[in-house]
Amino acid sequence: MLRVEGLSKRFGGIVAAYGVNLEVHPGEILGVIGPNGAGKSTLLNLLSGLLRPDAGRIEFLGEEITQAPPEVRTWKGLGRAFQIVQPFPEMSVWENLMVGALYGKPGTGLKQAQRVVEEVIALTGLAPKAQTPAGELTLLEDKRLELARALATRPKLLLLDEVMAGLRPAEALEAVELIRRIRASGVTVVFIEHLMPVVQALADRVVVMDYGQVIALGHYDEVAANPRVREAYLGRAR
Amino acid sequence: MIAAAILLLALLLPSLPLGEWRAFLLDTAQFAFLTSALALAWDLLARSGQLSLAHGAFFGLGAYAAALSAPALGTLPALLAGGLVAALASFLLGLATLRLHGMYFAIATLAFSEVMRTLVLKAQFTGGSIGLPVQPAFSGAFPLGSYYLAVAVLALSAGVSLLLSRGRWHYAMAATRQGEAVARVLGVPVVRVKLLTFGLSAFLGGLVGGVYAMKTLFLSPYDAFGLGRAVEALVVPIFGGLYTTSGPLLGGLIIVGLETWLRLRIGEGYLVIYGLVLILAILFLPRGLVGLFRKGVGRA
Amino acid sequence: MKKLWVVLVTLLAGLSLAQTTLRVGVLLPISTVAGKAALNGVQLGAEQVNASGKVRMELVVVDDGNAPATAVPALTKLMTVDRVDIVIGGLASGVTFALSGPVKQYQPLFLCIGAASSVVEQAFSDYGRFFHYHPWDYHNVAAALEFFKYLYDNGARRVAILYEDGPFGSAGIQTYRQQLERQGYTVQAEPFKSGSGSFTAILTRLKAFRPDILYWIGYDVDALPIAAQTRQVGLEPKLIYGAPPAWPVGFEKNSLSNDIAGMTAWLPSVANAESRRFVTLYRRKFGEVTDEYMAPMGYVIALSLGRAAEAAGSSDKDRIAAELAKVQMDTPFGPLSFKPSDTGRTRYQGFNQSIWLQFQYLEGSRRPVFPPNRAARPLRFPGNY
Amino acid sequence: MELLLQTLINGVLAAGIYALVASGLALAVGVVGIVNFAHGEFTMLGAFIAYLLFVGSGLDPLVSLGLAALVLFLVGSLTYYGLIRPVLGAPELNQMLLTFGLSVALQNLALLLFGANTRVVSPPYQGSTIHLLGLSFGVVPFASFVLSVVLLGGLYWFLGRTRLGLAVRAVAQNRLAPGLLGIEKERIYLLAFGLSAALAGVAGVMLSVILYASPTVGFAYTLKAFAIIVMAGLGNLGGVVPAAVALALAEALVSTYLPGGGGWVEAVFFLVIFATLTWRSWRAA
């Protein structure tokens, strides 16, 4: 569904991604893990088009999108939720979702967008807060909004950047449930996560990154047993 | 509502029994309409997160283009030409400044205005620093011609502003303003939104300049491209209420009205009071004049 | 009893006949130095007229804001609300040009105090009630050129012109260049932005040209920076000659002003009876002496209007205009009378190049040095900068 | 060669004034995050203080420097308490309108009190020049340049080396959550805004010697100062002098080498800014 070949990006002297190869299969949940600064967020930014790669190519649903701007990728069905939630603060929850619903797929009318928003709101449990200004939400509600907004664009593949950071364990469990439901509705999911239990519970496959490179790929248990991964996580004082 | 009422009043003003104040009121109102229209144009651009200091330049470009083409084209096509020239300039400016935000954007647009002014100052066909005499609207055939042109430009600006404050465009502009990167990832065609609002806003600014030229009958680079005009275009919407239609509309009328009234009342030093009023307005009406009417929470 | 009434009524009628009441609109940029001075002058003049008892002048003062967008409605208000028939105003050229439309619409008697640009002359060329007191820009050029001819005769050969790039500085620049070259000068002209305060770079450029005369056309804000930086660059011209509309307050007390020459229409030290009278009256009313020639200009306009109204014995604008056209009077600037302008475009032109005089800052005050018949001191040439 | 050297000197010296006016502005924007449109009017107050003291009691403007700084520090503090503090949380545009209102009010108050006249001070060294190897340096512009470098250097030292300065920087970098060393954000803002006004006062005194004192004296240089701090990068005090030098050099080169270049100075100044800002924004992508 998504194919990445030799993707590289450097900032000045720092290599944030180097020769990343990756394939995401339809319907799976893929976890991306790695120490801080391993290049996970850079990878997501490259995939969603906020950064342009120095080398390599990205293919989505059989089309090359390496140089496509972010909005075009969204139109093709590549959705993205941010780690640091960035709701449009002067809009209500409803309006925030309307942006995603209206523009996520070209040619969406107002009526249709409203229906999409209603669905998404129901799915994410934001209904009671629909008219609240986004600037006044709690962290959990913010995270839900972030997820809901990405869903409103009706993605085929959803990129999630640490959507559970800062949540309490009970809340994280709720979120895990939500992501499962999203997958059940036919959306492929790629997510970055720090909480290992969450990764273990959710991911069909896991990618481990370090120093901008993919150092391991496979089922959670396989990866966890990989000596290079253990070294990356434990061996160095970071 | 407020907008419609003001426009209706503007249309009917010449036929109201105003007595001896009629001519003065019509003249003052005409300049106030132009101020409001320019403010509406500025606000349009601000909605997409672009704080322009170039509206003096759009005004000036429109004014000069209209003035220069009026003898050949006639009044209405000349005004249109003025708007188009301003829009074209804004398109080029917009392309260059796509990635600038906040103060950086503001200063870049300020720089653009200053360069434009110098070009007009140095050019021969613009009359240079001496200035350019302008034909009256419709060659002076209708005494109220330029008044109704001002009303028309105001109505057009208000109409565009109203149209873009609802529906798809409202969401696209507000999203671009409040988080450009996020908006792109949500599928908002940010580049198109920015350039289009830039072009529309500059087009309206250019129209305002054209009508102004046909009223004052004389243009000089320091007047037409004045920084004061760019600042006024920014002050009025903040005073009236940002990202609304009635805000800049009402704001322009009240600011010009207040300034005129103070000048007639106090004379020397009236601008001290004017400055104090602006300060008090910000301290006590943080959401502008329209904040008085709308008690609801933060609408985008 | 009846008789007494008749007498009273006749008396009153006689009085009202003898005293003509004029409502006069005054439209000036009162927040600028020149505008304020002009207003003071007009008020002083009106007071004098009223004191004579034959004519009563009521002034309706409005600020023109020094901007077309303010001036046009302000004129409209004077004409329709205050219902004046006579307007004194038109100081800045751009504003005056913008007023040409409404003036033609409302047809007042328009007594123009400034607006030297010949663009304005064109705008009012078909308007019969336009009395322009101030010389036109070509008069200014002619006056300066006379002075340059004198300097040429005294050995000056090279002129560097610094002119501000607004309408004030740029208007006559081509004429200056041609005329100076015709007189035999070598000319180099450079524009600058008024108020920028940085002249060293341009002056450094001029250094290679080795000018005898540094002639600058700008504003009061440029006077001190040019004087200081000419020295700092080591340009050493034989004369710094400036033509701003006004000079900085207290500039004569600054040692850098020494030997700088300039052109003005009037100085408080001008030795004619009318000028002395004006200075005395002005000091009595405002408690100070003014350097601004716009003050006596306003004063002269008010006085001449009073005289014309007295002669007309009526407040009718056309009868006053007819009398004004015939006025012959002495003023602080010298004799005033109206003739068609040199270009023939307007019919009533008051002063011409003969009112301009050249002065030099010498020992802490401005002294007339040219033309010779009005000079109080000989010109110090070469000066020391 | 000599012409080129002299031109470079002219440019560098002119940069001194720019940097002086810009330094206070940079501090207010960098630390408090306030775009202060009234900065030019603070400068104007400094110029008038120098003028009044000179005319009233013959005080040399150099002596007035300290006094002007002190008075303006008070003015700045009062402004902070009365006007800035209430709008710290408000949108940037509201803050701009507020300081714009203050600017209009102050400028016209000065107009009312002193009239629109241009006024000059006359210290004996005003036109003095140092001649060296066939090159000339105006004493006052040179002093302004040194002053601006010293003041900015001092500020830099203060922010980088002192406890209080480090606290200021901490506050500047994270406006929402200071809670640092018990020093209140409030007091730091007050200090920074006061200092910013004091710097404006110092610049104003120098302007009164180089240019003049009038209600509008602050305007011309403040506009350029805004452009300079933006080119330097908001909050980057170290970039102010280089940006000022680059721009002033461009101006000097154009006016010296281009016939009629004096009329293009403004355009070149702003063209350089425009090109730098846009080029930087595209390169960063």
From TrEMBL, chain A:
Gene Ontology molecular function terms on file: ATP binding; ATP hydrolysis activity; L-isoleucine transmembrane transporter activity; L-phenylalanine transmembrane transporter activity; L-valine transmembrane transporter activity
Keywords: ATP-binding, Nucleotide-binding, Transport
Domain ABC transporter: from-to ranges: 2-236
GO cellular component: a single term: plasma membrane
Pfam families assigned: ABC_tran, BCA_ABC_TP_C
CDD domains: ABC_Mj1267_LivG_branched (cd03219)
Protein name as it appears in the record: Arginine transport ATP-binding protein ArtM
Matching SUPFAM superfamilies: P-loop containing nucleoside triphosphate hydrolases
BP GO annotations: D-alanine transmembrane transport; L-alanine transport; L-isoleucine import across plasma membrane; L-valine import across plasma membrane
Lineage: Bacteria, Thermotogati, Deinococcota, Deinococci, Thermales
Gene3D superfamilies: P-loop containing nucleotide triphosphate hydrolases
PROSITE patterns according to UniProt: ABC_TRANSPORTER_2
Coiled-coil portions: none
From TrEMBL, chain B:
Bilayer topology annotation: Multi-pass membrane protein
The keyword Membrane appears for this protein: yes
Record's GO cellular component terms: plasma membrane
InterPro entries the record matches: ABC_transp_permease, LivM-like
Transmembrane segments: 29-46, 53-73, 79-98, 105-125, 145-164, 195-214, 234-258, 270-290
Subcellular location, record wording: Cell membrane
Keywords for the protein's UniProt record, in alphabetical order: Cell membrane, Membrane, Transmembrane, Transmembrane helix
PANTHER family named in the record: HIGH-AFFINITY BRANCHED-CHAIN AMINO ACID TRANSPORT PROTEIN BRAE, HIGH-AFFINITY BRANCHED-CHAIN AMINO ACID TRANSPORT SYSTEM PERMEASE
Name of the protein: Urea ABC transporter, permease protein UrtC
Species, as recorded: Meiothermus luteus
From TrEMBL, chain C:
Gene3D superfamilies xref list: 3.40.50.2300
Annotated Pfam families: Peripla_BP_6
Name of the protein in its database record: Leucine-, isoleucine-, valine-, threonine-, and alanine-binding protein
InterPro entries attached to this UniProt entry: BCAA_transport (IPR051010), Leu-bd (IPR028081), Peripla_BP_I (IPR028082)
Record keywords, A-Z: Signal
The keyword Signal appears for this protein: yes
Domain Leucine-binding protein: 21-342
Keyword Signal carried by entry: yes
TrEMBL record, chain D:
Gene Ontology MF terms in the entry: transmembrane transporter activity
Stretches that traverse the bilayer: 12-35, 65-84, 96-115, 135-159, 188-213, 225-250, 262-282
Entry GO terms, CC: plasma membrane
One Pfam family it belongs to: BPD_transp_2
A biological process from GO: amino acid transport
Annotated membrane topology: Multi-pass membrane protein
Subcellular location: Cell membrane
Keyword field: Amino-acid transport, Cell membrane, Membrane, Transmembrane, Transmembrane helix, Transport
Alphabetical list of PANTHER family matching this protein: AMINO ACID ABC TRANSPORTER PERMEASE PROTEIN (PTHR11795:SF445), BRANCHED-CHAIN AMINO ACID TRANSPORT SYSTEM PERMEASE PROTEIN LIVH (PTHR11795)
Family label: Belongs to the binding-protein-dependent transport system permease family. LivHM subfamily.
Name of the protein in its database record: High-affinity branched-chain amino acid transport system permease protein LivH
